Fold this sequence. Notes:
two-stranded antiparallel ribbon, two-stranded antiparallel sheet, globular
Amino acid sequence: MSRGNKGLAALAALLLLLPLVLTNSYQYDVAIRIALNAIAVIALNLLIGYTGQISLGHAGFLGIGAYASGVLTAQFGWPPLLALPAGALAAGLLAFALARPILKLKGHYLAMATLGLGIIIAIVLTNEARYTGGPDGFAVPALGVAGLELAGEKAWYALVAGLLLLVTWLACNLIDSPAGRALQAIHGSEIAAQVAGVMTTRVKVRIFVVSAVVASIVGSLTAHYVAFVTPGLAGFFHSIELVTMVVVGGMASVFGSIVGAAILTVLPQLLSTFEGWETVVFGAILMGTMIFLPRGIVPTLAARLRKGAAR
């Protein structure tokens, strides 16, 4: 059994057994938020970790999904199962339209461009108060179909756990495919990838669109789960949280994405008594990871275990 299959089996077992130790609504809530963050971070890791294209405004796509679902269901009466793909389509089209000019940039120029995109989306969501409720946000109807609503932490856990397992499986298969090897070739050397016949621009645009669509779906689910949405979901700090999850868990590591999401979703709960210091702690963790674990937690530990087994 390959390492990817072993990891999937372990993840499936963990997701199946976890409800046995979750004893209250709060613990279920944390588990659901970890799964939602992990789904978004896996897709973002495909862009950052595997392809080497930084994005500091990715939370903007979560905001598009959340507000599309919220506005279309609350103000226009759309069923959630139509509003959610509509938001994903909007995010995908925006990402496709902007990917070519943005992804031509390199290094800090690319980082600044994606940062600007995220800020613009957050500002639009804040200022269009007629539809978005402005800075205060607005209530979002429950996720449901034909009068049946998804209610209760156990039902939501089953939904997001299944979706996390599916996204993890798809990501692992993508990485092991020729398309995944093209992503990693671009990260290694874009010029060498072009010489090898990889259509680098097309590949980068596609993975940018995929990561945006997945982020939008996560945003929609988050809005329906929380039953409320504010511009903070699309804000700069949330984008930095997502990037930090990628770096801490391990760039170019699908299962590292899950670990990073788990750690940095639980951490704010533990720091709730130190209100206002979360940003400082996030920065310190990011600095410490880059200094002592530059490859992230999972790749570093995996390398050490393999080295120890080889002795």
